[in-house]
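Progress report, Aim 2. The chain analyzed during this reporting quarter is listed below.
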Amino acid sequence: MVGMLRNIGDSTPLLFSKLREVGRAFESYQIMVLEGNSVDQTKADLARECPQEDTQCIIEDVENVAHIQGEFVKGRIQHLTKLRQILLKHVKANLAKERYDFVLMYDGDLFEGTNPGFNPPNFFALMGYQVEGAGRPSAVYADQPYDLVCANQMVVDGMYRDTFALRLHKPLNYKSEAFGRHEIYFHGNSLADVGACFSGLAVFTAEAVNSSCDYNMYVDEETCEHVPYVQCLADHGYDQVAVYPPLYNAVNSPRVGPPTGIGATFYPDGVTPPMVELECSNHGHNRTCHRPHLPWTAY
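Predicted structure tokens for the chain:
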């Protein structure tokens, strides 16, 4: 289980608790984290996790590429690409020494603030999912996995969030496809085949991660760093990619970001990008929100 984190407030203990809940279901597991120069309490909280036998913390090299990583900041994708390559280098070094079947890649802010994040039993549901069709023998996912399956990263009422990394079609178009941010919904209990995805939480086969593909394929600031990486995997035969709708990664935010441009609009430091307010209403103990006048597509 490998990921990057920076400035995630007081959510570090919860993140590690959830990761360990997932890990304990397997014969063996290792948590690997790359910390990106946090300026809040993250480093102090991480210092209590790093000495654990199941945890490997990466701090070398980070200073060489560290600068602001906030969303919509120019240079962010190039920076994240470098960090992900550092992390991947360490992952491959571990795979050369020990045998693992899966690599769960996560973003460290899964539970930051009021984010509900993901629920480990939903990950276990994926492992037990009955995979059929496409020339495959009927078997559970753990025995016949896809090369990459991503979580269903949702905002408020279920709108899919990470359209920056999402490509519905193959071959992949490095630029965004003909849908806007927060116009996609995934639902149901079946794997939804896509061209590329990430969702802040994704499970790769170790075989795919251990291929010759790397993250050091930066294209530009309008292209998510995951897209050329997933394209490289496909070029090497690791092209079975899907989103699993029940494996949600919930982002608890009533503000869903700029309505135009997917990674294409940049703002200088200290300038807040325009936001679109969701219309919310209370129904007893339940609160529902939606983006007004937004067309959506179900997959």
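The chain has a mean pLDDT of 80. The helical segments are 12-23, 42-49, 76-97, 120-127, 206-209, 226-235. These observations will guide the mutagenesis work planned for the next reporting period.
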